[in-house]
Amino acid sequence: MKRDLFALADDNFRGRRAGTADELRAAIWVAERAREAGLEPAGDDGTYFQFYPLHRLTVAASSRLTLNGKPLALWQDAWVTNPINARLDGPVVWLNSLADTTRRNLQGKIVAMPLLPPTPLPAANISLRAMRYTLAGIGQQSAALQQRGVAGIILAADAMAEPSLAFVGHRYQDGVYVLPSMPVPSSPVPILLVRQALTTPLRAAGARFQAELNANDFEYPSMNVVARVPGTDPTLQAEHVLFSGHHDHDGIGTSVDGDSIWNGADDNATVSVALLAIGRAWKQRPGARSALFVWHGAEERGLLGSRWYAEHPTVAKSSIVAVLNGDMMGRNAPDSAALLGSTAPHRNSRALVDMALKANQDDTKFLLDTKWDDAKHPEGWYFRSDHLPYARAGIPALFFTTLLHPDYHTPRDEASRIDVAKLTRMTRWMYATGWLVSATPRRVTVDSDFKLER
After folding, report:
1. Any idea where the Peptidase M28 domain is (predicted)?
2. Could you give all domains of the chain from N- to C-terminal order, each with its CATH number?
């Protein structure tokens, strides 16, 4: 597992960003390891791969921005938050607060104002807090201004948002990804985030803003890697225990201490190599039910690979008995872990939870942190990994994790920081749970009262 971890989280794969050749290369690497382990291909057309289209919209490099006759550098001075084809040319109306909107006719105006703190504020110590703060603030202010019929919106970063502009801005530069079945997020007017230093020229008497904005529309391939080990029971082998993870990460991003490759060792090379280890063990000693392994692509772009597989499984959907998903399984205190989907309202199968708890009690003996499964937990962690589309599709599903840490979604998430012994122990827990699911004659079912809070 250590060998595989250091290989998949190496700079050679350039962060495995979805929709890039780097993600394709990583998927091929995973498929080759599965083939070497003797796992059967279970993707499309007798291969290990299931390809699907990513619809991506970006702001075109040909877009131009000018303030008071001086050009603004796209992605350095200003960030267009929504890919859009639009033209703006006119005076800037400066507002100090949203209260000012009630005293002025803003119909068709280009409005600028400071980014205001969102309500409620993101919880203290929450992951990616500055990004959440900025996104929520932009969403709330732009919604209010659009109701006033403005033609364009310019928000100047405040002291909270300014230090994270490069990180938040990379999200906007990357654009929007959706599956063909998903609606494309859109806004009727351009919305821009600019540096705090531009507050003064925006407020100047006679300030004028011009923009020529163009949007690109692409379709990229992404892929799931799918492999299988047949079960030994003549009847039960038609059913599947699905082990789930994702092989993609964030690619090349904002440089931190000279490192711009976001390798995603914990997120989620750990589980990618865990599934390979479970596959090797299952091949050596198959369970009664068949084991299905799905390494999802494009998880970081919105759980797109798992959404696609839940909608287009390569086996009969009714044959999937349970989904055991892992995400980030190699950090934090050696004896701590979490099992999301184990408490209401996230628990969708009491029988499956009981098997996971028994496997932990009998073997791995982790101290389980249940706080992160609470519907009121500010992270909303249950809704951020690949078990979710399966749970929504009515399949028993659990989420194994060792939770977040300060290196989450930074270039510091390196293989050298992974506790390989803990990762191995977490892998044993997933394996043992899957073995119980496979061996039990009566399949686990979804609880009749299961209903997610959102």
Report:
1. 224-431
2. 2-57+221-439 (3.40.630.10), 61-213 (3.50.30.30)
